[in-house]
Amino acid sequence: xxxxxxxxxxxxxxxxxxxxxxxSGYRLLNEELxxxxxxxxxxxxxxxxxHLNLYGDFYLPEIEGRILQAKRPSWHIFKSGVIGxxxxxxxxxxxxxxxKKMKSPEDKNPAKSELSVTTVERFLKQMEHLLxxxxxxxxxxxxxxxxxxxxxxxxxxxxxxxLRFYVYHIExxxxxxERL
Length: 180
Description:
Shape: globular
Number of strands: 4
CATH topology: Four Helix Bundle (Hemerythrin (Met), subunit A)
Strand content: 5-15%
Order of helices and strands: EHHHEHHEEH
Number of helices: 6
Distance between the termini: 35 Å
CATH class: Mainly Alpha
Structural class: mainly alpha
């Protein structure tokens, strides 16, 4: 799949700002509402955000480091890789709006964590960092710059695919929190 680099990044920035606006509204909710779970197997709004924070702890430094080390200047076309495109699309809702359930890796599962409103602030700081990285990504080649992924440093994805996966993953769990 080939996409215009500036369109990919503009879309990811738009999606990220929308998520940032939604979660900023969580500041108005008390901790009891933020920790509310419909059942024992579900995550609360704060658990959804903490899950994303745990991923951000890996992906934000990884993405930033790869952008800073990139040797190729920006190219106007981004060509998605087979595996990267698969992972990115896996995060998005199906055509009917449903989301395929997945088991979270143990180290990224926030269930039974003691969480407070600081989780919201941490998430919003990570979103600001992500938005800065998306701006920085405009200067590098999204196809030839590679990043490691959280499940294996041996597997490398194209930066554009990693950014798509990461932003779609954020959207997925913020939508999950919004359904509560």
